[in-house]
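Help! Submission page says 'invalid entity' but I think these are all valid:
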Amino acid sequence: MSSPSALGIVHPQSMHFPTPLILQSGAQLAGYTLMYETYGTLNAARSNAVLVCHALNASHHVAGAYDDGDAKSVGWWDNMVGPGKPLDTDRFFVIGVNNLGSCFGSTGPMHDNPATGKPYGADFPVVTVEDWVNAQARLADALGIEQFAAVMGGSLGGMQALAWSMLYPQRLRHCVVIASTAKLSAQNIAFNDVARQSILTDPDFHGGDFYAHGVVPKNGLRVARMVGHITYLSDDDMAEKFGRDLRAGEYQFGFGVDFEIESYLRYQGDKFSEYFDANTYLLITKALDYFDPAARFGGDLTKTLAQTDAQTQFLLASFTTDWRFAPERSREIVQALVNNKRRVTYAEIDAPHGHDAFLLEDPRYLGVVRAYYERVWGDLNQAGGGAA
Amino acid sequence: MNFEQLKAQRADLAYIAHWVAPRAHVLDLGCGDGVMLDYLQSDKQCSGYGIEIDDAKIPECVARDVSVIQQDIEAGLAIFEDNTFDTVLCLSALQMMKNVEGTLRDIARVGREAIVSFPNFAYWPHRVALMRGRMPVSKSLPYEWYDTPNLRCATIGDFAALANEVGLDVLECIALHEGKPVSFLPNWRGSLAIFRFKKKTA
């Protein structure tokens, strides 16, 4: 059977870190495990590594397929990462890493708290984007990568890439931030809180200790996902895909599923509640809400991004119909980088698919990223560190 | 890219490249495929940004190692602080603007010097076309009146007056034809007008 991904079969790995990690909140994780995947080959100079940071519901499984014959096991950014893809694994050594608090294998709320011998549940410490980046940096240390050719991410992943450029300015040459923002708006936080409330008020949540009760707060997760999903799509895209189409061709005069959009959202919600962890959803939405690197600088993003290295180059991209992290949010980052005379390229893609566009195939978008990685590759070889 | 390569590709740009000082911080409005910034960066150690709206041009700029920002120039240059740039280039783009005056004011705000070029409407074949009662169509104005992106038609004389009004002093003004300067009757024989401005000191 041919693989559903050009990258072929990939295998997740894990690494345990016994040194405690002090978190932004002041809490600490005594030790932790990170799941990760790598694609391509690290060159002798260890200079061709690219870190890909994941967004809300994704994982270390960025590209390739698992050996389970399931087409759905293809990585979440397989159209971006792989041999001959914009981020070409024939050139770069690409790392996907699953963040702390996630439900895809890295240490998270469903794992045992060494202090109690029981699952962390609601006691899992609140982690921030910066905490994730610190944990990722330790993985980079362990893999012998002193400096990334690029750190890249979309949405929440873009926040991590941006945080890298400020927390470890010497450790990346390029920073690729797609459909992201330097901070959430009140509206973004409001949507996140509706999602959290739906989980927190689900009777099956049991204050986060639902593992012990053998249940899952599925209804809460469903509604959380439905709300989130609405914010990923544009009004136009929804109108195009679903319009006012009726499931049964006529009104049912009840509160079941009338419209196709209802059916779609419920399906997305059901699917999500099958595999996602409620505590993880709470944690990740909090990490989103808390991200605001400029807060420490009185809201001055220019001063904030002065922490980046003058040699680091940036690519930002946004999508015109993305109302979750609108182009304006990316432009603010571009402006602050320009004020610091950083080298920055910005593409504003006129795509109809809203926030989701960053995961979809758009030749203009993928073309810019491809051209950018050509340049990253060119820089690498000019520096004499290219793959043999 | 060296000077000879620029000259071979774009003689008009090569003619004015010496107006940009080495190591200048440059903004190129409507930078297209980024060829001018590519040259200025590699041959004159300049830095800066290009502004371009056309999707197809963005990867071309990236390939040339030009930092390009995709936006509509007419949406304003708000992302740039006052006096950010040593030189602002606006080459064969201004005539496509709806708000030429606003754009020129923005250019004067963010830059210390500016170089602006546009097709000279007073070029003699254009005058002849008008004498015959038809809108001119030429190499420098290659569009029919009903599908042209060039919203504004100006002559060398017109433009100097507007520049003065927005706070720019004319340092130099030349007319080119086929990439070569025209010194005799420039407002008749030049198809491309190029102005070099300096911001007026208050």
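Support: the input was valid. A stray whitespace character was the problem, and the output above is from the cleaned input. Chain B has eight helices and eight strands.
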